[in-house]
């Protein structure tokens, strides 16, 4: 029996369970020469998938209606007719939301569960960690002693960005949505300060207080009013890394903010959007640093692991409520 | 008799004549050893001066109340006790809005009226030309065949940006506020297309039509709704040069726009604010190119020359009505 999750409707605003359809097939999968048969072990759910669910033109094609959704997946090879993979191997790659599937192996990486937990390859040792490392370094160009603000700081990318910031000698301020998250940022991830945007009476003033020297680098995962508040505190030659805008992904009207242009002119500041694949040639170097830091316990991570294939859509929807601590993963 | 223009009030919204005060002194100016006595010949009025009239912290200090305003000035040396200057020399520099003044010569450049008109040193061969050249090249990194959109295209900086774009092999689209200006952009400055934002029914659609391949570089002089419309048309890896935001300089409330973050992420696009002095080490190279192109008639410029010292404040205010074609200069 194979279960598959299809995109049934393009979400209007916040995704709902009715945007997804479960299909169960009773067929057995057969593989041809060169193929491998995969059994899904872990599925990554990520805010950027929201963009692929809409029809708007973007850097990666939209998901097609009534076709399986894809995301980062760790799967086990349960049958192989491909010399590069053997039964029992685990692989990581962009795969469908299916309990089992056939692949040619193209685009898949073998991952080693003895070096790190398998799910880490969806997080700190996967696209999440690469996004944090490469965004901060390639665009942020951090210099020890500078001040870094991270929004969505308790999220998968944000919590790694902050830790890398500390490793590189920055003062790191995180913005997140609950006191519990702020506590985790400080006690577990070593952030210097945290701001709870849900209880702050004046985010702009709280940032100014936490960053008395001003903000040199802003790693922006959220957009919206939080990012507006950071803008008032940027220094000359500030770098704003625009990684995501989760706060507005579900907006049905075009979101508005304060005009950034006067802040950019006044401060000779930079804002740069990116996706991690822009820096593919830097992946090996980045991965090496991340793996080393992880082995040295300089880097730690949290996961919110949801159990069961049937809960993938729900886990995805929960991202927009900030219900995750760190990387949101579904264990099959 | 010496006339001086002081900043009397910090403008609220659009500057008015009552924000300026004229003072007339009957004294004769005496100069000490090392000084030069200057008689003002041309005064540059520029949108960025609006920023210096407010009290807000910026990249250059605010003008002080009841002190002379300063801007780019061409002046004639009428007496010299400084070996670097002789009577009859013309100099360019940041000087006060005074008919005569004493200087040590520090920060002043001698300019040669036989090579180009004196006023050109306030425009195409001055900060204006350098801003256009360095913003376009250092941030825009143009590649022949790409599409460039310029807002404020009939202004001093914009009209030079567009011409440099053509010299570098770009398709150039200008946005300006009257049909006459659009005609000048095309016939005099060689722009490929022009959009009149005052008569366009849908600026976003008109840009799409003029730039069927999308927009690779946007040289933004205006901010506001025009820049919002450009955002919808940017290509992957687009570069947005944020030079000015004249459309919002006089806003008394914090201006709002559509949120840029989703556009930047989706397109891995860059927005970079700058002031020309960031690239001071590139001035000689830039100046050489500008002077060569001017001599070869590859570059042309327009000036709106207003006559008489007493009209400086009025000329400045007219900038915000778009009454200038090209560089706005007051001839004394």
Q: What is the overall number of helices of chain A?
A: 9
Report the sheet with the most strands of chain A, covering strand number, pairing sense and barrel closure: 7 strands, mixed
Order of helices and strands of chain A: EEEHEEEEHEHEHEHEHEEHEHEHE
Number of domains of chain A: 2
CATH class of the largest domain in chain A: Alpha Beta
CATH topology of the largest domain in chain A: Quinone Oxidoreductase, Chain A, domain 1
Structure class of chain A: alpha/beta
Give the rounded overall mean pLDDT of chain A. Answer: 93
The geometry of chain A reads as globular
Strand content of chain A: 25-35%
* CATH homologous group name of the largest domain in chain A: Medium-chain alcohol dehydrogenases, catalytic domain
What's the number of extended β-strand segments of chain A?
16
Q: Biggest interface in this structure?
A: A-B, 38 and 38 residues
Oligomer: homodimer
- Helical coverage of chain A, percent range: 25-40%
Which regions of chain A have little confidence, pLDDT < 50, spanning 5+ residues? none
Distance between the first and last residues' Cα of chain A? 14 Å
What does this structure look like?
- The structure is a homodimer of 332-residue chains.
- With 332 residues, the first copy, chain A, is α/β, with parallel strands linked by helices.
- The first copy, chain A, has 2 domains: 2-122 and 302-331, Medium-chain alcohol dehydrogenases, catalytic domain (Quinone Oxidoreductase, Chain A, domain 1); 127-277, 3-Layer(aba) Sandwich (Rossmann fold), CATH 3.40.50.
- Helix content of chain A is 25%, strand content 28%.
- Chain A contains 9 helices and 16 strands.
- The first copy, chain A, has helices at 49-53, 127-139, 156-167, 179-187, 203-210, 224-231, 261-267, 283-295, 312-319, and strands spanning 2-7, 20-25, 36-44, 70-80, 90-96, 100-103, 109-111, 147-151, 171-176, 193-196, 215-220, 234-242, 256-258, 270-273, 303-307, 327-331.
- In chain A, the strands form 3 sheets. In chain A, strands 3, 4, 5, 6, 7, 15 and 16 form a 7-stranded mixed beta sheet that branches. Chain A has a 6-stranded parallel beta sheet with strand order 10-9-8-11-12-14, with helices on both faces.
- In chain A, strand 11 (215-220), helix 6 and strand 12 (234-242) form a beta-alpha-beta unit.
- In chain A, helix 2 (127-139) packs across helix 3 (156-167), helix 2 packs across helix 8 (283-295) and helix 5 (203-210) packs across helix 6 (224-231).
- The longest helix of chain A is centred in the middle third of the chain and has 13 residues, at 127-139.
- Chain A is globular and about 60 Å long.
- The model of chain A has no long low-confidence stretch (mean pLDDT 93).
- Chain A binds chain B through residues 51, 56, 58-59, 220, 223-224, 227, 236, 242-245, 248-249, 254-275, 278, and chain B through 51, 56, 58-59, 220, 223-224, 227, 236, 242-245, 248-249, 254-275, 278.
């Amino acid at each position: 029996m194979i279960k598959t999750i299809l995109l049934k409707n393009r979400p209007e605003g916040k995704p709902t369970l009715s945007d997804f359809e479960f299909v169960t097939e009773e067929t057995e999968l057969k593989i041809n020469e060169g193929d491998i048969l995969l059994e899904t072990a872990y599925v990554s759910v990520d805010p950027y998938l929201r963009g692929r669910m809409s029809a708007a033109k973007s850097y990666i094609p939209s998901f097609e209606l009534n076709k399986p959704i894809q995301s980062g997946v760790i799967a086990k090879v349960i049958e192989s007719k491909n010399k590069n993979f053997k039964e029992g191997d685990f692989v990581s790659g962009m795969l469908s939301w299916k309990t089992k599937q056939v692949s040619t192996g193209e685009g898949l990486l073998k991952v080693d569960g003895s070096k790190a937990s398998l799910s880490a390859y969806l997080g700190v040792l996967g696209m999440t960690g690469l996004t944090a490392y490469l965004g901060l370094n390639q665009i942020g160009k951090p210099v020890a002693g500078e001040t870094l603000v991270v929004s969505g700081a308790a999220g998968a990318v944000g919590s790694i960005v902050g830790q890398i910031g500390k490793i590189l000698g920055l003062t790191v301020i995180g913005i997140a949505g609950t006191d519990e998250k702020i506590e985790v940022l400080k006690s577990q991830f070593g952030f210097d300060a945290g701001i709870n945007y849900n209880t702050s009476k004046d985010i702009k003033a709280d940032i100014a207080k936490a960053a008395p020297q001003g903000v040199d680098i802003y790693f922006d995962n959220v957009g919206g009013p939080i990012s507006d508040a950071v803008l008032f505190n940027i220094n000359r030659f500030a770098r704003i890394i625009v990684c995501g805008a989760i706060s507005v992904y579900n907006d049905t009207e075009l979101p508005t903010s304060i005009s950034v242009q006067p802040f950019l002119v006044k401060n000779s500041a930079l804002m740069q959007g990116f996706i991690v694949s822009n820096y593919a040639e830097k992946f090996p170097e980045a991965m090496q640093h991340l793996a080393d830091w992880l082995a040295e316990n300089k880097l730690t991570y949290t996961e919110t692991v949801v159990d069961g294939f049937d809960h993938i859509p729900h886990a995805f929807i929960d991202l927009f409520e900030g219900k995750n601590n760190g990387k949101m993963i579904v264990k099959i």
